[in-house]
Automatic annotation (TrEMBL):
<protein>
    <submittedName>
        <fullName>DUF3892 domain-containing protein</fullName>
    </submittedName>
</protein>
<dbReference type="InterPro" id="IPR024997">
    <property type="entry name" value="DUF3892"/>
</dbReference>
<feature type="region of interest" description="Disordered">
    <location>
        <begin position="56"/>
        <end position="75"/>
    </location>
</feature>
<dbReference type="Pfam" id="PF13031">
    <property type="entry name" value="DUF3892"/>
</dbReference>
């Protein structure tokens, strides 16, 4: 069963550290990436940072309101 990300939690530096799924579960970045690889999170792609770290991004659709960074709250 797949979930969608409904909220993200950023650290004080503005980096997304956790993803909140529509079923209420909160997962860290690594767990979210693994879940996406296994088809358990819809609407995202796996991207790589300049440091080579994997993270999630929303699939491009021309709408900024559903971007993960727009769903964020500070930790």
């Amino acid at each position: 069963m797949s979930n969608k990300i409904v909220e993200t939690i950023k650290n004080s530096s503005g980096e997304i550290m956790q993803y909140v799924l529509e079923n209420g579960t909160t997962v860290d970045k690594a767990q979210g990436v693994e879940m996406a690889k296994n088809g358990q999170i819809d609407g995202v792609i796996i991207a790589h940072s300049k440091k080579g770290e994997e993270y999630l991004r929303t699939k491009p659709d021309g709408t900024e309101g559903n971007n993960l960074s727009a769903m964020a709250k500070e930790d």
